[in-house]
Amino acid sequence: MIRKERLIKNFLNMLNQESQSFKELVMGKWLMEYFQTRGIDVFMDQSAANIGGNCGNIIAHIKGDNGSKPICFAAHIDQIPPCCNIKPRVEENIIKTDGTTTLGGDDKAGIAAILEALEHIIEDGLSHREIYLLFTVCEEKGLLGSKNLDTNLIPVEDVIIVDAAGPAGILAYKAPAMRTIEVLFKGRSAHAGIEPEKGINAIKVAAEAINLMHIGRIDRETTSNIGRIEGGGATNIVPDEVKIVAEIRSHSLEKLEYETNYMMNCCKISANKYNTSFEFKYDLDYSALELCKDSYAYKLCIKSFEEEGIKPEPIITGGGSDANILCGKGFNCAIISVGMDKVHTLEETLSINDMLITSKVIARMMIEK
């Protein structure tokens, strides 16, 4: 049976394992040992060398016997800092910290739910499908683990990613593509008190360009944001360079392209006004995720929620995850929730009941014929 005490114990044990992005080896070794002591095939891939971290993706394989098609369950190892010396507090149904660190429910709650489902089917000797488990690194730093994954190591069509916030029952089946943009505005330095007329203030050029841009919610499919501005120096010097870092997200590739070009045109208008120049660079961080409602993965999630007595809540999310990358690599990906709340903050919490329900739902998926 699914054991609540074991689920909580495993989660709390994981909180003691260091797992900051690029430094996940302690947590990676914990996972490797966990599977090895249970006689489960497990290995670490070679992605660390490409990423520049100390740990690769962890992949486990459990042979099946019920004839159902193989499936993969996934979660990410790394967490957002500050995440050292976590002091968890269990208060009735909620796990949180003392307020000095993040909790790490994102995504150790996902890992814990997967492990508990697996413990259940092994302990009770239940017939199950062939199962692959994927635990990625550096998800929080640009989805680097999944980007560097050799897909031949996961010979399945469907991946269930346990990495959504909110109560049990949420199924994220659609997410936008994201493009990161860097713009370097050029100006001309001059003494700000003696001869400012001889300078071109790069910050002013950037500010006027930003003022022309579409920022925030553009439409129901598209958002844009200026996340960082760098440049300038002493107040008595007209700044000759400033860089802005932005992002655009959209479920529509046409809109993504349009808004990128619109942002570039805003930069041109401002640069031309001040007779200066700029450098505009962009990169597609990840493609859009869209899981067909007729797909096996989608139907399996809906069926498993309903059989557990949970009303499914299919949603379209505005965030990116490993699912975007894996979808782009040819997998059918669904993202399900595990009870996390206020992730990436010092107020992060985890609902034990929701993590428990998610464990039961995952177990149903593992044994479904």
Which properties best describe this structure?
369 residues, elongated, 10 helices, Alpha-Beta Plaits, alpha+beta, Aminopeptidase, 5-stranded antiparallel β-sheet, 32% helix
The percent range for helix content is 25-40%
Uncertain residue segments: none
What is the residue-averaged pLDDT? Answer: 97
What quaternary form is this?
single chain
Q: Which sheet architecture does the biggest sheet show?
A: 12 strands, mixed
What is the H level of CATH, i.e. the homologous superfamily of the largest domain? Zn peptidases
**How many domains?**
2
Number of helical elements: 10
Q: What is the alpha-carbon Rg in Å?
A: 23 Å
> CATH architecture of the largest domain, please?
3-Layer(aba) Sandwich
Helix/strand-derived category reads: alpha+beta
Number of strands: 17
Shape: elongated
Order of helices and strands: HHEHEEEEHEHEEEHEEEHEEHEHEEH
- Beta-strand fraction estimate: 25-35%
CATH topology of the largest domain: Aminopeptidase
Q: Which helices and strands, and how do they pair?
A:
Blueprint: H1 4-15, H2 25-36, E1 41-44, H3 47-51, E2 58-62, E3 71-76, E4 89-91, E5 94-96, H4 105-123, E6 131-136, H5 144-147, E7 158-165, E8 170-175, E9 177-186, H6 202-212, E10 216-219, E11 222-231, E12 241-250, H7 253-273, E13 278-286, E14 289-290, H8 296-307, E15 313-316, H9 322-328, E16 332-341, E17 349-351, H10 352-367
Parallel strand pairs: 3-6, 3-7, 7-16, 8-15
Antiparallel strand pairs: 1-2, 2-6, 4-5, 5-17, 8-14, 8-16, 9-12, 9-13, 10-11, 11-12, 16-17
Helix pairs in contact: 1-4, 4-10, 6-7, 8-10
